[in-house]
Each structure stands twice: as structure tokens, then as C-alpha cells.
Specification:
The complex is a heterodimer of chains A (297) and B (394). Chain A has 297 residues and is an all-alpha fold. Chain A has helices at residues 2-40, 47-63, 68-91, 100-123, 147-169, 171-181, 183-188, 193-219, 226-240, 245-265, 268-285, and strands at 137-140, 143-146. In chain A, helix 1 (2-40) packs antiparallel against helix 10, helix 2 (47-63) packs parallel to helix 4 (100-123) and helix 5 (147-169) runs antiparallel to helix 8. Chain B is an alpha/beta fold. Chain B is elongated, with a radius of gyration of 22 Å. Classes of the chains: A mainly alpha (297), B alpha/beta (394). Chains A and B meet through helix 1, helix 10 and helix 11 of A and helix 7 and helix 8 of B.
Chain lengths: 297, 394
């Protein structure tokens, strides 16, 4: 019994805490993806590359002598504008088409390849390091967590809460939700739909950029880092319900726990497979995901 | 009579041409085909191979060549891709009629080109490929290796660690695929044989982003030494995250495969790789007159330090020179006989080819990461590191 308690305390609990932090980071990436999908029916395959751009932007700004904290504010804005540009120049002309789901999928896939190659040309293939602004380890009752990871957790929670508040408690959010349900009705009220689309892209991509800055000291920066989260983020969006904000957060936390805790008992490679098993199960039992789409809740 | 001898020599020449062994004129150059990756992921390795070959050939040719014949290099880009390597080697053998082949980096390329060389009655020497099978289970009478293989790295590193690293508890981490599993199992076997304790091993997926799921296991195992077979970004993340979680301290020794920490990824670790130990067949800081002369010439020519790939390829051409002089021709059977059991001088000292499996016996150096550089901290004699001959094909 004592052994079991020690096991829970020193093995399972730290694993749970680590997975919780990864889950919050994952939610940041998935939130942008699900908002863009919920509003525009666009599956943004370049989302991982925007996360990568966030990492590189942080690396470059720090190299120019900017402080970490200014990078934390600046980078999401920069990446947000890249996203806005992508919407304005690439997605917008394709939206009126009936097959927009598939053509925007192809477009964003192409864009992701271009961004990855551009990163290789600009920054080279070597891995780059971003130094964490906070060092040290916090410990309580024999469980240790690096201080910087706690900071990432706090920032992530804050961003998630801000997103929820923005979408469900503000005028802008009401417009956004209404647009997701019936864009032409919203347009008939004289609301500039184009701006709503552009801003959503801006915000979703800024979240990916924020994740890029926050995670760069932990995971390092290199051209193909976008892959790391994208596949998991898609699983999150599917499990949570395509376009659902609460769903994305719950699913991100859930899947990170499934993967983290499972890799204690089964080979880590299989833990990843298990995550997709959960996704498959959700698709079979509740094809719409655990929660409702944007605008329906 | 005259006519008969003409016909005889003509048909002899034709036979030779058919078997791709043209009779050589004293003034003909000795053509060496270098099939090496000049583009793609392994391009930095191919660059060193090319530089090593060019420097050696320049020196040998300037000093009068080999019995009056000059070396001529023919480069082909193999893209570290075995099918491409085979296609380019076929061209070198059939069209350019090269006398010797070298340069292959990817172990798969070496194995495939080796078979091709055997069918064409030519010799291939690798100066880079690590896979033990090249001079082991899949050894080939026409293939030689002058660099240290993966077993030699493991033997030398573990021998040094057991003698010098404080503590006996060893923990192992390797990417979950063939290379990681086989490297770690070599480390484990050697450590156990030498009296160390295996306190656990873990195999994260290749390309894992977060190593925190393994931190608990590592902490619980209380290792004195962590040995890893990760490479590239995986090593960066593993070591920075171990540092982040406070696992790395002055009492813990870090060690691993030669490819785990390299010039490519060392800068990204922010000091987490400090003190990392690995074993290789060469280090630019080897303190001998021969090596100093080589490093100076290399730097002057290419404005870069040589690494093990450059040094091993450079050394190979002096083996070629010695063997061709001894054989008196570039005839494959005579060359093979001259290369077997040959010992010759290279920047890193005397190397000797073992006749039984065509593996060169190379003195190993143990290097330690200090800042962004590698420092030699120990040596292990080649005879001690090379291990048993496992080739039974010739």
C-alpha cells in the first residue's frame, strides 16, 4: 500500500503535471486551428508552420538584442499579421468556391511547404536555441517542475481564458459566432464580414505564434518543428468537435494525459497510437466530437 | 609470328576490357571514383570526404605520383541514397572505367555499391560508414573499411568510461528504431561485460519532442552515467530537458554515440551538452607531428578544420599508394592481396587492415565536449577496441 502511494506520488503525479502543461500548450495550437475551421470551414495545414515562425521570430528578435518579454508580446502580433496576409491573399479568393474545403486544404499545404523551405533558406537547417528567461526548479512535496514550465502553463491558461472571454462575453465574439452560423445574415446588418474573417485568422495565427515563443526554450527551433504539434492538434480538433473552443481545450488536456500516462506503462511509440485510437473511437461513437461547433453552444 | 602475337595481345586486351580491367599504361592516370553525398542531409560529410581526397591526391601527385602515374579523382553525388549510389557507381565503373571506388557514406550505399564493385571486379573502400555488418555478417572480399565502426566506438567508449567515470550505474536512452536499439544493445553488452550495472533503458520514439515522460524513470534509476544514441534535434531536446529538470549535475557523466553531439547541433544546447563523451577514430587535436602537419595543410587549402571523415579519406589515398606500389599494378587481385594485412601511416597514426574481415584497426580517441569544441581526454588502442572477426565469407 505504501509502495503504491509512493508510486502514485513520485511517478504518476509528476507525469500528470507534465502532461497537464503539455496539454495547455497543445490547446493553444489547437484553439487557432479550431476557430479558423469553425468560422471559415478552412483546414489550415500551414498552422504548424506559423507555430514554427513564432519560434524563429523569437530567436531572431532575441538575437537582435530584444528582451524575451518584448518578444513574447511582439511575436504573436507579427505571426498574426502573417496569418492575416495569408487569409487576404490566399484564402479569400477561394472562399466563394463550392469546393473551398479541398482547395484551401491544398493551398495551405502548399504554403506550409513554402514556409518550411523559406525557414531553411533564411535560418539554415541547424537547430537554434532560445534561452529560457526563467531558470530553476520549483519543488513541493518531492515533486519538481521547472519554473519556466509553470510560467508556460500560466501564460497558456491566461490565453485560453482570454479567448473564451473574447468569443463568449464580448460584442466582437457575438459577431464572430453569428458569422459562423449565417454569414449572409450578419452581412445584411452592415457588418464587414471580410474584417471578421481577417481578424479571426489574425487571432488564430497569433495564438500559434504565442505557442511558438513560449515553447521555443523547451523544444528548440528548427524548420520542421511545425510537425510536432500539428498532427496532435488535428486529433484534438476532431475529438473536441470541429470548431468548438471548449472542446479543443478539454480534448487537448485529455489527449495529453492519455499520451503522458500511457507512456508510463506501454512503449511511448504505442502511446501515440493510443491517442489516435481515442480519436477513432470518438469518430465512431460521436462523429461530431465531444462538444458543439462554434456558434452552436 | 608477329601477327600472332598481335592477335594474342589484341584478344587479351579485349578480354580485359570485357571484364572491365583495362591493361594500364605506365603514364595512364589511376582513376578513383568518389561516390559521396554532395547534396542533401549528408552533404557536410561528403564535403569532408571530398576535401580529404583532394588534399591527399594533390600531395601525392606533386611528389611524383605512384610509380610515375598520377591519381585522378572522379566525383559523383550519391545523395546518401543507395539506389542513386548504385546508378552513379555503375556509370563510374562502366563508362569511366575507374580503378578504385570510395566515398560512400550511408551504410546501405556502401553495402549496395560493394556488391556492384564485386561484380565488376573492383575494390570499394569506405571511409565513413559505421554499420558493423559491412565488415561482419555482410562482409565482401572486394570491400574494405578504414574508419572505426560502431562496435569499435562502443568498445572504446565503454572501456574508457568503466575505467574513468565515477560510479557504476548506467542508464541508456536510444531512439526507437534499428540504429538506436542496436547501438544501445552494444553499449549495454559492453558495460555489463566490463562490470558496470545496467539500471535501465528507455526508447523514446524518433523525433520525440518531450522527454519529460522519461525523466521520472531516469530519476528513479539514480544513474551515475547516462549513455544516449539519440542524434540531431533529439539530443538537443533530451539534454536541454534533462538540464531543465535538474538531472544533469557534476556527479553525472554524459556519454554516447559519436553522432549524438556534433558541430551541427552543439550550438543549440545552450551548454547542456557540456562534458558529453564519445569515441571516434580521429580528433583534429591529436598531438602528433603528422597530424599537426595534416591539419595545417587542410586548413590552408580549405579554410576549415578536418573532421574524422576528412582525415580517414585523406589517409586512405596513402594506403592506395602503398598497395599499388607493392602490387606493381592496379590489378584487383594483386591490390587486394597488397591491402590485406597492410599497415600504413595516417594523420592519426599507424592503421592496419585485418585480413580476416577487411576492417582497419584504428586507435580510438575519447573526446569530451568543452564549450563548442571537442577535446581529446583519452585513447584506447585499436587492438583493444576492434573486437572479434565476425566475417566468414573469405
Amino acid at each position: 500500500m505504501e509502495d503504491l502511494l509512493a508510486y502514485l506520488h513520485f511517478v504518476v503525479l509528476p507525469q500528470f503535471i507534465d502532461a497537464l502543461i503539455i496539454g495547455v500548450a497543445l490547446a493553444l495550437v489547437a484553439l487557432g486551428l479550431t476557430m479558423i475551421f469553425g468560422l471559415l470551414d478552412v483546414i489550415n495545414l500551414a498552422h504548424g508552420e506559423l507555430y514554427m515562425l513564432g519560434g524563429y521570430a523569437a530567436f531572431t528578435l532575441l538575437g537582435w538584442g530584444a528582451g524575451y518579454w518584448s518578444a513574447l508580446v511582439l511575436v504573436p502580433v507579427l505571426v498574426g499579421f502573417v496569418g492575416w496576409g495569408l487569409e487576404e491573399l490566399g484564402i479569400r479568393p477561394l472562399l466563394p468556391r463550392a469546393d473551398r474545403a479541398i482547395v484551401t486544404l491544398l493551398l495551405t499545404f502548399g504554403v506550409s511547404l513554402i514556409f518550411r523551405d523559406l525557414a531553411q533558406v533564411i535560418w539554415g537547417t541547424e537547430t537554434r536555441a532560445v534561452v529560457a528567461p526563467l531558470a530553476g526548479i520549483a519543488g513541493a512535496a518531492g515533486v519538481f517542475v521547472p519554473v519556466y514550465r509553470l510560467f508556460v502553463f500560466g501564460c497558456g491558461l491566461l490565453a485560453i481564458f482570454a479567448t473564451w472571454w473574447l468569443v463568449y462575453r464580448t460584442q466582437i465574439g457575438a459577431v464572430l459566432r453569428a458569422t459562423a452560423v449565417d454569414p449572409s445574415m450578419v452581412a445584411s446588418f452592415g457588418i464587414p464580414i471580410r474584417l471578421v474573417y481577417g481578424l479571426t485568422f489574425f487571432y488564430g495565427c497569433a495564438l500559434a505564434g504565442l505557442a511558438g515563443v513560449l515553447l521555443s526554450p523547451i523544444y528548440a527551433v528548427f524548420p520542421t518543428m511545425g510537425h510536432d504539434f500539428l498532427v496532435m492538434a488535428f486529433a484534438v480538433v476532431i475529438v473536441g468537435g470541429m470548431g468548438s473552443i471548449i472542446g479543443a481545450v478539454v480534448a487537448a488536456l485529455l489527449l495529453a494525459q492519455v499520451q503522458g500516462l500511457a507512456s508510463l506503462w506501454i512503449p511511448p511509440v504505442w502511446a501515440e497510437t493510443l491517442v489516435y485510437g481515442v480519436m477513432l473511437l470518438v469518430l465512431v461513437v460521436r462523429p461530431g466530437g465531444l462538444f458543439n461547433r462554434l456558434g452552436e453552444a | 609470328m608477329l601477327k600472332t602475337s598481335n592477335i594474342l595481345s589484341f584478344s587479351a586486351a579485349a578480354t580485359l576490357a570485357l571484364t572491365a580491367m583495362p591493361g594500364a599504361n605506365a603514364a595512364d592516370p589511376i582513376k578513383v571514383g568518389v561516390v559521396t553525398p554532395l547534396s542533401g542531409t549528408y552533404a557536410p560529410i561528403g564535403k569532408q570526404v571530398r576535401w580529404g581526397a583532394e588534399l591527399a591526391v594533390k600531395e601525392i601527385n606533386a611528389a611524383g605520383g605512384v610509380g610515375g602515374r598520377q591519381f585522378e579523382l572522379l566525383f559523383e553525388d550519391e545523395e546518401a541514397n543507395p539506389p542513386v549510389a548504385v546508378r552513379k557507381s555503375e556509370k563510374l565503373l562502366q563508362q569511366d572505367k575507374v580503378d578504385l571506388l570510395t566515398g560512400t557514406v550511408n551504410s546501405g550505399s556502401t553495402l549496395a555499391v560493394g556488391q556492384l564493385a564485386e561484380r565488376n571486379g573492383r575494390i570499394l573502400v569506405t571511409t565513413v560508414s559505421y554499420a558493423p555488418s559491412i565488415t561482419g555478417a555482410q562482409c565482401n572480399p572486394n570491400v574494405f573499411r578504414v574508419n572505426a565502426n560502431a562496435f569499435m566506438q562502443s568498445n572504446a567508449l565503454t572501456a574508457w568510461l568503466v575505467k574513468n567515470a565515477p560510479g557504476k550505474r548506467y542508464f541508456f536512452i536510444g531512439p526507437d528504431y534499428e540504429m538506436g536499439r542496436s547501438t544501445i544493445s552494444a553499449f549495454q553488452d559492453d558495460i555489463k561485460r566490463l562490470g558496470g550495472t545496467d539500471v535501465g533503458a528507455t526508447f523514446p520514439p524518433l523525433g520525440a519532442k518531450d522527454f519529460t515522460p522519461y525523466v521520472g524513470q531516469i530519476r528513479a534509476a539514480r544513474p551515475d552515467v547516462i549513455m544516449t544514441a539519440t542524434a540531431g534535434n533529439d539530443t538537443v531536446r533530451l539534454l536541454t530537458q534533462l538540464k531543465e529538470y535538474g538531472i544533469l549535475n557534476e556527479k553525472l557523466t554524459l556519454a554516447g554515440a559519436a553522432g549524438a553531439v556534433t558541430q551541427e547541433n552543439i550550438g543549440a544546447m545552450g551548454g547542456a551538452g557540456e562534458g558529453f563523451l564519445s569515441a571516434a577514430g580521429y580528433s583534429a587535436d591529436i598531438d602528433t607531428p603528422a597530424n599537426k602537419k595534416f591539419v595545417a595543410a587542410f586548413k590552408k587549402e580549405f579554410q576549415n578544420d578536418p573532421d574524422l571523415f576528412g582525415a580517414d579519406t585523406y589517409g586512405l589515398f596513402y594506403l592506395f599508394k602503398q598497395a599499388i606500389e607493392k602490387a606493381g599494378s592496379t590489378d584487383t587481385d594483386k591490390l587486394r592481396a597488397a591491402m590485406e594485412d597492410a599497415s600504413w601511416e595516417t594523420p592519426q597514426g599507424t592503421k592496419k587492415i585485418r585480413k580476416g574481415d577487411h576492417q582497419a584497426i584504428v586507435d580510438m580517441v575519447v573526446v569530451k565536449v568543452k564549450g563548442n569544441d571537442f577535446q581529446t581526454v583519452g585513447k584506447v588502442a585499436g587492438a583493444e577496441a576492434v573486437g572479434p572477426d565476425k566475417c566468414d565469407k573469405f
